[in-house]
Amino acid sequence: MKVYYSLLVFSIFMVIVTASSRLIILIRDYPINFMTTRNFTIGFFYDLMNMSIVSIILSFILMIFKNKLFLLKIVFGFLCLLLFLDYNYYLQFGTHLPYKSIYYISNIKTFYSSITSIILSISFLLIFLLPITMIYIILKKISRLNKDLVLSNKKLFMLIISYSIVGSISGSYSNSALEKNINDPVTIPFINYFIWSKKATDLKKISMPFEDIEFVGNNLSGSKSDIREFDRYPLVRVNNSKCGNRDLHQKIICNSNSKINWNIILILMESFRATDIGVYGSSNSITPKFDELSKEGIFFKNFYANGHQTKHGEVAIYCSIMPNYGGSVMDNFPMNSFYCLPEFLKEKGYSTSWIHASDSSFDGQAIFLLKNGFDKIIDKKNFSKDAEKLGWGFTDKELFSKVIEEIRKEKQPFFTSILTITNHHPFDVHQEYNLNLGSREVHKFMNTLYYSDEQLGIFIEKAKKENWYDNTIIVITSDTSWHGESIEKANNYDEFVRIKSKIPLLIIGGPIHKPTVVGQFGSQIDIAPTLTDMLNFSRITPWMGVSFFEKHSNSFALTNRPGMYWSVMNAKGSFHLENDKIVHFFGGLAGKEQRDYEKFGRAFINTSKWLLQENLYWPTNNEKYN
User: What is the mean pLDDT of residues 24-40?
Assistant: First the structure.
């Protein structure tokens, strides 16, 4: 009889904790109205369905498990742990914890500081400690009942029937809303999203999309190569340097001196979200250094990340590949043959290095980067043991000091890329950088953004005093936006996507003497072709991006987050496909224009997916063609 009561208590508490975690999100981040209340109610029926399924499984297990109360406590504790981790993941990425997160268990040392931070948060008490304590107390009282521990077959049968009825009724009501609301954390419980998200990033084999490949090819610059080796590689194009072509974009300076090659420093500022930067319209004065630097160089007003994580941004920036709408390139195609900017520059005589203040092996970065053109990887192992640490690695201050030190050793011309880390969860920062905006996650984020901005400014001032500066262009952008909460609220789906994907792009340096503003839309895949034109290099490459030298007023920017959305945007309007089902158009697009925007996005997504699947971006013979 004890087991009967204990299982009922477990079932009730399971519904309470799963619903409560969604209720916290609702109260914290959503307006309370009819629609959000309705969505929460749909989620409650999911909670009932999930509880019924788990309870039925436990009913059978309890028949053969000796320490029955211990099992219920362990299962409930594990559930609370998952809900706690899920809530804190939501604060950073705006969705429930996805299936792919299990792959990061082996890297737990890297985000030890994040774990420490969330354990000290109020969510640890409310979502983990409190419910576990309560159910342990109740189960302990039940265990003292003077009743038999045996669960009779009759009562077991009645329990299973009851759970089946509850699960069937609640499931039939809620399942019709699953696909439509899968990314809504108020509607969809963690368990359902976790299972569904595996499907979103699974590699599904597709047939060759002939029309899409032809469409993408027609939108690329340059001409097809007459080298027979490239016949199987549909995106390879021959591009002559655009430097000095008066018919093209003359706002962007290029190197007209064929005797001297410019050095390049490419800085990827961690989660440097445009919506929080002053010159991109933020009302918060937390990026004064970047705002001042924007007056010194080429400032790009409408620039977007192609993906939602660092590993997506690096593939797009270094290799001009549209991040796969599914399993990531670094995780699933690390041994494919690519031809990336570092390799291209190395063949032009550049020394190439990548500098990071954390673990370069995280997400398979080191393997991918070394294979695709970087000669030297410098990460946390190369820093002094006395160097200051914050969060996931050494501080941005230490990183930029290391950059100056390493560049002094480099043979010119050099291409050095930097990935910062301080503006990453847990957003640790010294008290002097606390802006006292509040205690929410977004306020902590803004503190570290302010810190990173200051360190960027200090680095540029130091760089200007180095003997290599006059011959160096410095590209400042971000690996990705931040998908956590924003001070600026989205009024529609278009604004939502732009907040989650718009990032800065600024090019400064010794050769650039006249400030310029570029209004054309672009994204990370456009950086590599733009830089080669600035350097006055012709190229044979398979790059999906288009140089800003060739962009026109209606040029597109693309972004995607697998399973959540993919988008096509330009100055005239935008197309967004939410959850692979819901279509959003903005900007007064109608008829053929709507179909053209959608066709453009689908073509790039399908082409990238198929080329990765077939390993047909670039030949594998290691021949040099540039």
Answer: 90
What are the backbone angles phi and psi of residue 625, rounded to the nearest 5°? -115, -5
At 177, is the pLDDT very low, low, confident or very high (cuts 50, 70, 90)? low
Neighbour tally for 506: CB within 10 Å = 20
Q: Which three-class secondary structure string do you get for 205-272?
A: CCCCCHHHHHHHHHHCCCEECCCHHHHHCCCCEEECCCCCCCCCCCCCCCCCCCCCCCEEEEEEECCC
How many Å apart are CA 492 and CA 495, to the nearest integer?
Answer: 6
Q: pLDDT value at position 529?
A: 96
Q: Using an 8 Å Cβ cutoff, are 340 and 373 in contact?
A: yes
Residues 6+ apart with CB under 8 A from 484: 91, 92, 93, 94, 441, 442, 445
**Res 149: pLDDT:** 47
**What pLDDT, on a 0 to 100 scale, did the predictor assign at position 247?**
60
The verdict on pTM exceeding 0.85 is yes
Please state, in angstroms and rounded to a whole number, the distance separating the CA atoms of residues 195 and 191: 6
CA 55, 57, 63, 67 dihedral sign is negative
Q: Could you read off the pLDDT of 557-604 as tens digits, one per residue?
A: 999 998 899 999 999 999 999 988 889 999 988 888 889 999 999 999
Please give the C-alpha separations between residue 529 and each of 310, 344, 490, 601, in angstroms, as whole numbers: 20, 11, 32, 20
* Count of residues in the chain: 626
CB burial string 122-135: b at 16+ within 10 A, e below? ebeebbbeebbeeb
pLDDT at 388: 95
* 559's tokens: 């972004």
Q: What is the pLDDT of residue 233?
A: 96
- 3-state DSSP call for residue 540? strand
Q: Facing residues of 266 across strands? A: 417, 475
Q: Can you say whether the dihedral through the CA atoms of 353, 355, 361, 364 is positive or negative?
A: negative
HEC-encoded secondary structure of 100-157? HHHHHHHHCCCCHHHHHHHHCCHHHHHHHHHHHHHHHHHHHHHHCCCCCCCCCHHHHH
Q: What DSSP element (H or E) covers 556? A: none
**Which is nearest to 328 in space by CA: 346, 343, 315?**
315
SS3 label, residue 585: strand
Token pair listed for 605: 């997504």
Distance CA 456, CA 504 (A): 13
Is the model more confident about 448 or about 99?
A: 448
